[in-house]
Write a structure and sequence with these properties.
Strand content: under 5%
Number of strands: 0
Number of domains: 2
Shape: globular
Amino acid sequence: MNRRQLLATTGAVASLALCAGIVAGAPGCTPAPAAEPDALLDLVNEYREGLAAFNASGDLSPQEDRALQAATWGAPYDRLCTAPPVATTLAGALAGIRLVADEEENCGQQPDLTINVLRAALAYFDGRA
């Protein structure tokens, strides 16, 4: 066995031991912290995913259109317009601001969404000031 093979093997063994220690909860073996939850980020992502599914649906009758809207982006949109959760992370605040910019640019004036999502995003920065 040459040096390169030895280092590759011992590195792999050390990595496996570390992973086993993390899984077993061994002292000193802690996993990386989970990403901080952010309800605004989750809601923005849910809305964007629903909108993408809706837009990929093709031509529909008005009745099918309304049903698909309700099944994909309707509920998240309503929550964004009426009572979006406050951003608790920078990622959530930025996602809210980007959503407002995208919606205003692509869909026109939506004051309920714009005002409420901006307030939810700004709450993150207000809490940091």
